Amino acid sequence: MKRPRLPRVPRIRLRDPARRGRPLFRPLRERNPVRVGAVGLVLLALLALVAYNADALPVIGGGTTYSAYFTEAAGLSSGNEVRVAGVKVGKVTAVKLDGAKVKVTFRVRHTWIGNASTAAIGIRTLLGQKYLAVDPLGSARQDPGTPIPKSRTTSPYDVTQALNGLGQTLGSIDTQKLASSFQAISDAFKDTPDSVRSAATGLSSLSRTISSRDAQLAQLLSGSKQLTKTLSDNDGRFQQLISDGNLLLGEVEKRRDAIHTLLTGTENLGAQLNGLVADNNRQLAPTLDALDRVTNVLLANQTSLNKVLALAGPYYRVVGNVVGNGRWFDSYLCGLVPQSYLPPHPQPATGCMPPKVRGTAS
Asked: What pTM was computed for the model?
């Protein structure tokens, strides 16, 4: 059995109706050379501009922008390097006048700038090329929106001006007197003991230690400033406290004689008590010894004393009942006469026990 044949689909070719059969893209040799050259120049200019501002691109460039105030520019210009510990970390982006100060704007990458950092304009080459040296100090990050103040920036000396001043100074120096002065200093320190050199070494070590603890000293000074402000805010209370202390001392001064008399009397009383104890020690000692012996005897016979007290208690209770009704004895005798000599009487139910006296209601 033969399979049915499918209908054939015709192919559709897309052509530009305006070109009427010509290809969509023509080769460069068929294009206008003036237009091709203009487009190439524009592309080259764009590539050059991108390469020149590569540091400002968000992917391959970027960084953090800071600023600092200087007393003078000292030849620093935009594009100069920014170094930290001698390593290039960025560049200067702008140098402009801001009032009576010079504001230098610079950008760094992957570099920590602290809130106590210092900046200095350094000389890179003998030809006078400058760079910006930053020393990252502080315990917190520097705010990019807050410029580094002039108190933490330094500008270099002008070498030409310094050499001219040096020449004028050397020309006015009396070399013979200078040589005599150096000879006198040499003679003075010729026999200097080792302690002087040790002191100089210690001062040098102290300077390095203070320099390395710059951030901690800044925190200490900040805390001292806060303490001073707190004390200043409570100045009135401190004055009142000192005034009250003066009043207390004045009252103590007034009562000094009375306190002295009290202390003297207490001392005399102590002396009298010591004398009394010493005088009666001979009489009190035998008495205390006898009392100690009596106490020991009572402790040794404590069981017998307890038994005597237990037996004596009922006896004295009965005796009290006998003589407690007046000036006579109240007693009862049972069984004194034999029963056979008495007329027949009924025996009490309690035997020889005295009958209980019942009170009558009135």
From this structure: 0.38
